[in-house]
Amino acid sequence: MIPDEKYMRMALRIAEKARGRTSPNPMVGAVIVKNGRVIASGYHRKAGEPHAEANALMRAGSSAKGSTLYVTLEPCSHTNKRTPPCCPLVVETGIKRVVVAMIDPNPNVSGDGIRRLRKEGIQVTTGVLESEAKKLNEAFVKHVSSRMPFVTLKLAQTLDGKIATSSGESKWITGEQARKEGHKLRDSHDAILVGINTVLSDDPSLTTRVPGGKDPVRVIVDSSLRIPLNARVLTQKSPARTVLATLSGSTRKIGKLRKSGAEVIRARSKNGRVDLRDLMRKLGRMGIMSILIEGGSEVNASALKAGIVDKVVLFVAPILMTGSDSICSVGGSSPLRLAHAVRLRDLSCSKVGDDLMIEGYTRYPGTRAE
């Protein structure tokens, strides 16, 4: 492995520490190397706190002069944010060379940071482990370039594609380790989305059971506002918001829901249901950068049909449910032609306990949404 890749991989691993904590900012890691030795490192911990470069340079102190800075994202140059720009700090500390994984897709930066550094006589190398950096920040890339959230569809099913028996029993198809991974997904996303049928049948909490974890914003798709006022998503103690997406509902009930702390937003109608693409636009404008769908069969089908899903995470248990009356993981009607089926790309597979965890993209990661 060449030195640039070695140190950039280190910066990517450091950036990963802040997964789920930096939204609406990206995860960024920085490593400072001098005479072939790492003298300091840092990462962006949380929105509003110092950036990775600033943290690393503060630790390096005067030793930073004449060194090389490895950073996973182009140093920022704009001032319309809560923290000062990093480019002037890099220049002031006497950094000799900067190695960047990816150019910032934010229109406020988009190469300007690199231009400013070069103008000050600093040598800049770009594109080192660029694809890995884009994948790390796939949610940020989509949101900052399209204002739409990055959507992950999570499924837990049997080998023959079932999520429940004909009577509706589904606990638990996958094992404990797979369920823990599911909670890690909740912790790493800004929001979790389910349909009203999931709320009515399971009365879930939609919280994150991860030590030190955070609860995601709870988004309930409820076209006719059938949610009970005593549903757990409305009554539990949690700092996370609950957002109800609806088409209609009495003014009185909306008032009661808002009094309970819930937010009610009206979305466009499509075939008598909430238009999920319109809902994604609204949630994106609310600053929600990533969404995890943990819906039932019909919500899963609607999300795929609407074309809002970017990534699929599929947990598969070594079970054969059998029976045409059991419930499939994706409902709706099938396409007439195989060519119209959703095809996943860039697949990866790992074993989680006794189950398989398969990840794939409906479009290549890091690309702009349509």
SSE blueprint:
Blueprint: H1 3-15, E1 29-34, E2 37-43, H2 52-60, E3 68-73, H3 87-92, E4 97-102, H4 112-119, E5 123-126, H5 130-136, H6 138-146, E6 150-158, E7 162-164, H7 176-188, E8 191-195, H8 196-202, E9 217-221, H9 232-235, E10 242-246, H10 251-259, E11 263-266, E12 269-270, E13 273-274, H11 276-285, E14 290-293, H12 297-306, E15 311-317, E16 327-328, E17 345-352, E18 355-361
Parallel strand pairs: 3-4, 4-5, 6-14, 6-15, 8-9, 8-14, 9-10, 10-11
Antiparallel strand pairs: 1-2, 1-3, 7-16, 12-13, 15-18, 17-18
Can you put this structure into words, describing what you see?
28% of the residues lie in helices and 25% in strands. It has 370 residues and is α/β, with parallel strands linked by helices. It starts with a helix and ends in a 9-residue tail after the last strand.
Features:
alpha/beta; 370 residues; 9-stranded mixed sheet; 5-stranded mixed sheet; disordered C terminus
**Largest beta-sheet details:** 9 strands, mixed
Broad structural category: alpha/beta
**Could you name the ranges where pLDDT drops below 50 across 5 or more consecutive residues?**
366-370
Number of helices: 12
Radius of gyration: 23 Å
Strand content: 15-25%
Order of helices and strands: HEEHEHEHEHHEEHEHEHEHEEEHEHEEEE
CA distance, first residue to last residue: 36 Å
Strand order of the largest sheet: 11-10-9-8-14-6-15-18-17
